[in-house]
Design a protein that fits this description.
The protein is of the alpha/beta class. The chain has one domain (20-282): Metallo-beta-lactamase, Chain A. It has 8 helices and 14 strands. The strands form 2 sheets. The chain has a 7-stranded mixed sheet with strand order 6-5-4-3-2-1-14. Strands 7-8-9-10-11-12-13 form a 7-stranded mixed sheet. β3, α2 (78-84) and β4 (92-94) form a beta-alpha-beta unit. The longest helix is centred in the middle third of the chain and has 10 residues, at 127-136. The radius of gyration is 17 Å and the shape is globular. GO terms for molecular function: hydrolase activity. Keywords: Hydrolase. Pfam families: Lactamase_B_2. Residues 57-247 form the Metallo-beta-lactamase domain. This is MBL fold metallo-hydrolase.
């Protein structure tokens, strides 16, 4: 699995397009809802992030880029994240679910549609997520061209096939299995507890498993999230070639710094990695 240097070390503005070798996924944000550092927190993880840009995490979302650009979730940090990655157009939006930390930046796309493209933006989500999105952003109904996805629905976009797979979080939450032209299989589930059996079988042996790892130590919400340890255990049991930890709070239950977490991951010899804002992997 190929990976580039996180944007905190190599500014993405110098390379605003995806690698020429095919579709690629870029992490816009890799943090849980309050981000790292959280403005209200002075724990060791937040203080580390104030000193070291590499440890900073915005709210979760990813880009998939090839000839066109697909946005997976619209986190509140979206405008800054898209500018950081040199994005000038979004061609399609896909949502995992309708919680604020995955939805709150939708309003940033309004002006692209009204002032530039002039056409409703193709987008997709579960019926439950669509209802939540339009409840929060009822005034944007006219700029969104919605496709409702049932569990296990598939669609292709820009050389990548997407499958909507149910996960254990809010009603209607999906993870997405992405299959690129290279044959690589990547599963993205930023918010989930233990995977439902059918979803787990669908993603068994994935080349990259990108999954919720909100908690360090005690899991406050086992029906809706993983701890770091649980993500590693489930990923290894599923035979994932590389496991990327995302939706990292770093504050809960015991704060852990990035330096400490990376040291804990060393025994896995690169098979388990911390996702980072700006990191790009090939699909």
């Amino acid at each position: 699995m190929s990976a580039s240097t996180p944007a905190a070390q190599t500014p993405s503005a110098t390379a605003p397009t995806a690698p020429s070798s095919g579709p690629a996924l870029t992490f816009l944000g890799t943090g849980a809802g309050c981000g790292v550092p959280a403005f209200f927190c002075e724990c060791p993880a937040c203080e580390e992030a104030r000193r070291d840009p590499r440890a900073r995490r915005g709210d979760c979302g990813v880009l998939v880029r090839n000839e066109r650009t697909l946005l997976l979730d619209t986190p509140p940090d979206l405008r800054h994240q898209l500018e950081r990655e040199g994005v000038r157009a979004v061609d399609r939006v896909l949502w995992t679910h309708a919680h604020f930390d995955h939805l709150g930046g939708l309003g940033e796309l309004e002006y692209m549609v009204r002032l530039v493209t002039g056409a409703p933006l193709p987008c997709a989500a579960s019926p439950a997520a669509r209802a939540g999105i339009l409840a929060e952003f009822h005034y944007l109904d006219d700029i969104l061209d919605f496709q409702e996805l049932a569990p296990f629905d598939e669609f292709a976009f820009d050389d990548v096939r997407y499958t909507a797979l149910p996960v254990t979080h809010a009603p209607g939450t999906y993870g997405y299995l992405m299959e690129g032209p290279s044959g690589r299989r990547t599963f993205y589930a930023s918010d989930t507890g233990a995977l439902p059996p059918e979803t787990a079988e669908r993603v068994r042996g994935a080349d990259a498993l990108i999954m919720d790892a909100t908690f360090w130590g005690r899991n406050w919400s086992p029906g809706a999230h993983h701890s770091v340890q649980e993500t590693i255990e489930e990923g290894l049991a599923l035979g994932a070639r590389t496991i990327y930890l995302t939706h990292l709070a770093m504050h809960y239950d015991t704060p852990i710094t990035l330096a400490e977490l990376e040291a804990r991951l060393e025994p896995y010899d690169g098979r388990v990695r911390c996702a980072a804002d700006g990191l790009t992997i090939l699909l």
